[in-house]
Amino acid sequence: MPNGAFRGTVPPVPVPGSFSREAHHNSLMQRVTAERPTQPNRARTLRGIRPRREVERFESLVGELSAAMARVSADAVDCEIESWLGKICRALDLDRSAIYERDSPDEPVRPTHTWVRPNCPPFPRHYDPEKLFPRSTQLVMAGKMLTFARPSDIPVENQDARRAVARYGPKASAAIPMWAGGKVIGAATFGKFRSVREWPPELLEHLSLAVRLLGSAIERKQAEAERRATRAQLQVASRRNMMSELVASLAHEINQPLGAILSNLGGLARLLSRNNPDPAMALAAVNNAMEDTKRAAEIIRRIRFMFKAHSEHKTAIGIRALVTEVVQMIVSEASMRDISVRIVVSPSVQRIVGDRIQLQQCIMNLLLNAFDAITEAKSDHREVTIKVAPEKIGSISVRVSDTGAGIDPAVADRLFEPFVTTKSNGMGLGLLVTRSIVENHGGKIWATPNSDRGTTFAFTLPLVQRQAGASKDVR
Predict the structure, then answer these.
(1) Count of structural domains within the chain
(2) Could you tell me the pTM of the whole model?
(3) Coil, strand, or helix at residue 158?
(4) Residue 418's CB: how many other CB atoms inside 10 A?
């Protein structure tokens, strides 16, 4: 009976102590009609409770993910991400997940991290989302989230996605842009193959947050890789400059005796040509010796030319930013040695003019020397201070102070000469290279003992002059 049959009527009131069939029938109908509406309400309530509980559990999992991504090292990010893709899929009863990245704007989108539930379809070989569904990939990489709970939900205009779904068989999927640093650096996909799957808005919100956390970890890994690459570049430049100075020193030492040999042989040739029974043979031998001597000098000249930096790129540079960049490059080295680095830059310091790479190398050489001095001295006060302040009109000074044991007086006056070192395994070329860079920039370098402990290495650099016309470097 419809519920409306009871509208506008009053049910009969049974007489106490009596019971009739009509009264029993009426009370039974009242109970049935009163219970009927509660059954669908209860089902709807149960259907609402399940997604809510799932969202609450997943929200807690995202909190754990945030803590894990914050403490994982850059080297372990990839393994940690693949582990968490599995945790996310198991928590949401999904079957497959992947992270996609683009190395550069001209490079294709490629899967970098994947997770697949056992007995579920693996990713196809040579999987290229931009070829399979170019429009959908373009939308996601532009920052738009794409989801479908069942294949029939895919819009007609997304024919590329419909074809891919029909070919590879997912029954539900979510493709979420991966944001980091204010831009989309990739995407994450989550799919289900066993059945359809609804995507409540609150769940998608937490899933987007999880993808953003993964993106931040990937960005941190990429930044660390870039720092290491820059440091490796500086190390290569350092070795090149060391070799250049080494060859220059050897050439200087060798060219002196070679010049003497050349002069002596020239005199001998003249003597033999005047009074010798077989002057032709003597002259041939002497001429050969002279040519060999010239050839040796030419080889040395070519080696020196090979390692010499032929071009420089001097620009106006912010010294605070430059020093900060170098400190960030070696922050892991300082942390590993338990050394703190303090930067003090005078507010009145203006921009300097110079070659950024060479000056980075110069500061890094002095910082690493300071680290070595503290480590070898086993000092309890482990700190390096970098101070930048005006020196004289038109220049500034950069001072790197350590808390090591100080410099051996026996080599204090020869620190910047080739092959002079206080390290047990040093080559004695680092300070030589540093001096060469500083002097090439029109500055000077020196070392002084600190009043309490350790040593301060200082050098000067020219400030940007308005009439110099140097190009600006905003960093």
Answers:
(1) 4
(2) 0.54
(3) coil
(4) 20
